[in-house]
Design a protein that fits this description.
Helices cover about 35% and strands about 20% of the residues. The chain is α/β, with parallel strands linked by helices. It binds MU-OXO-diiron. MU-OXO-diiron (FEO) binds next to helix 2.
Length: about 400
């Protein structure tokens, strides 16, 4: 038997489940640490479920839910977000508890009709900003959060327990460990890279809507945050909210540099390595080096979110950019990356074009600065002093 996990708030339970077998979230982003699909249950005078789970986690979820309900019926299911990692189990839920009332935004009701052809939308109560649901002791206040991460999204604030059920906001990749609370994990060292990667790639494009949600949340007395992925926050909420505030404005997490290279035969890689060493020699902190052919693009975009300065080193390929670099720059543009400082290295054995093309891509984004000098390699780095000059320019621009 799988038991629900009691939370900090009285009579509120986590009944979601983790998936350690899925290779890629959205069939796109690698999740070697797995992912959790959080669903919460409030056992008040009436019973309220907040979201369901992905189909892969449905057996665990229903075991926990039935165990927690202990024979009681389910009165309400709140649908904060219609992405199937949270709503896939809804049809089965309604089959098991046919009298449950679904509560969601009008946009979500429309999506329910599209995702499920079983008439689920017929038992929906739609709610607007500021409406409430009182279930006895608890009162849930509905707060719309369009485009965090889809247009139908809302979050709920339980004024009895001062808990924000935050949908995708404040979520992270990573299956839940023995504890469900962030303060009982080494979040900063073990979880933060995945939280940043989740934010950048899932929500990163929607910084303005996230800012709008943060503004609404700042008016609430929040003591617990219950996201749809990852651990529950009941301490140091300000620390994580500050990260979200920073990420949603595309502000780097300090003055940090990284070097991204593409290299077919190792010559561009050798120049990139020398540049990283020379930047680091200025005492500006670690300068990680990434081979963009072997690094997942979600890790690279996440590093751009963290860093203030990035060196791009790229061969010319078919008279254009090396495909992985083209993909990275395209992804960054789509995610709304902005406000970073770049240094460019191109390689071309007969007609180098990569620097011009990288510069054009970067300058089509907001507030990007490209440092001089740009380094051009003709097959190999003939003059190490050229790479050192570029690295010195990066380090100089990192000074306050
Ligand atoms: Fe976790 Fe946008 O779904």
């Amino acid at each position: 038997m799988i038991y629900p996990l009691p939370m900090a708030a009285p009579d509120t339970y986590l009944v979601g489940a983790s998936d350690r077998r899925l290779a890629r979230f959205e069939n796109l982003f690698p999740i070697p640490r797995g992912v959790s699909y959080n669903s919460y249950l409030i056992l008040d005078e009436q019973t309220v479920l907040l979201d369901t789970v992905d189909n892969a986690a449905a057996p665990d979820f229903f075991d926990r839910l039935e165990c927690a309900l202990d024979g009681r019926t389910l009165d309400y299911a709140i649908v904060h977000h219609m992405e199937p990692d949270h709503c896939a189990a809804l049809a089965d839920l309604v089959r098991r508890w046919p009298n449950v009332q679904l509560i969601c935004t009008a946009k979500a009701k429309q999506m329910l009709g599209h995702f499920f052809c079983t008439g689920l939308d017929q038992q929906v109560r739609t709610v607007n900003e500021g409406e409430t649901l009182c279930t006895g002791r608890h009162t849930l206040h509905f707060v719309t959060a369009p485009m965090v991460h889809w247009p139908e999204v809302m979050v709920s604030y339980d004024s009895f327990t001062k808990t924000l059920f935050s949908a995708d906001a404040f979520g992270t990749f990573g299956a839940l460990d023995g504890s469900i609370f962030a303060d009982e994990l080494d979040f900063e060292h073990v979880w933060l890279p995945d939280a940043r990667r989740y934010y950048t790639n899932i929500v990163g494009k929607y910084g303005t809507p996230v800012q709008a949600l943060l503004k609404k949340a700042s008016a609430l007395d929040i003591q617990t945050i219950c996201p749809l992925h990852g651990p529950v926050w009941r301490k140091d909420l300000g620390w994580f909210i500050e990260k979200y505030d920073r990420w949603s404005r595309w502000q780097p997490e300090g003055t940090h540099a990284a070097v991204f290279y593409a290299s077919m035969y190792g010559n561009t890689a050798a120049a990139a390595q020398l540049i990283a060493q020379q930047i680091s020699a200025h005492g500006v902190g670690p300068v990680p080096v990434y081979d963009i052919s072997t690094s997942d693009i979600s890790e690279l975009t996440s590093e751009v979110m963290r860093c203030s300065h990035i060196v791009l080193a790229c061969p010319t390929y078919n008279g254009s950019l090396y495909p992985k670099m083209r993909d990275l720059l395209s992804d960054l543009k789509e995610l709304g990356a902005q406000g970073r400082t770049w240094a460019l290295v191109e390689n071309g054995s007969w007609a180098p074009t990569a620097a011009r093309l990288m510069r054009a891509e970067l300058e089509s984004m907001k507030d990007m600065t490209v440092l001089e000098p740009v380094l051009t390699l003709h097959s190999t780095l003939q003059n190490p002093s050229d790479a050192i000059a570029l690295a010195d320019a990066v380090a100089e621009s990192m000074k306050p």
